[in-house]
Design brief:
Strand content: 15-25%
GO molecular function: DNA binding; transposase activity
CATH superfamily: Transposase IS200-like
Largest sheet: 4 strands, antiparallel
Pfam families: Y1_Tnp
InterPro entries: Transposase_17, Transposase_17_sf
CATH architecture: 2-Layer Sandwich
CATH topology: Alpha-Beta Plaits
Shape: globular
Strand order of the largest sheet: 2-3-1-4
Protein name: Transposase
Amino acid sequence: MANTYTQCYIQLVFAVKGREHLIPQANKDEVYKYMTGIIQAHKHKLLAINGMPDHVHLFIGWHPDQSLSKLVYEVKTSTTKFIKQQHWMPFAFSWQKGFGAFSYSRSHIDSVCKYIARQEEHHRNRSFKDEYLEMLKKFAVNYDEKYLFEFT
């Protein structure tokens, strides 16, 4: 898109199906490197990536050539195939439907990157459900709890 200039910073959050703890700690870096490649191949800039065995946070400089929904779809489907090909687990791996997307200003980049880097620290005292509900409330996102990442 000639003459199109953007500055959009988006935090994406999505979970493993059933919020199972299936992202192997020993292979977490490989999964994140794979996700990074997908994000960069679609012209987005990865600013931070981290998570827990049951969910992932991505912080990107979003390029408007691709919708966020399409990006998340690409990341989820590709990493699901990648994880299955590695034979890290004797059972099926998949991501839950849906995702969260939260926008930030340039002045928040450092604090969001630090927040994502400290995921293990945050989750010593707080569940993913609590973290995600807090984000939805902080950003005044209307939601129906029965559709939130299969929390029931």
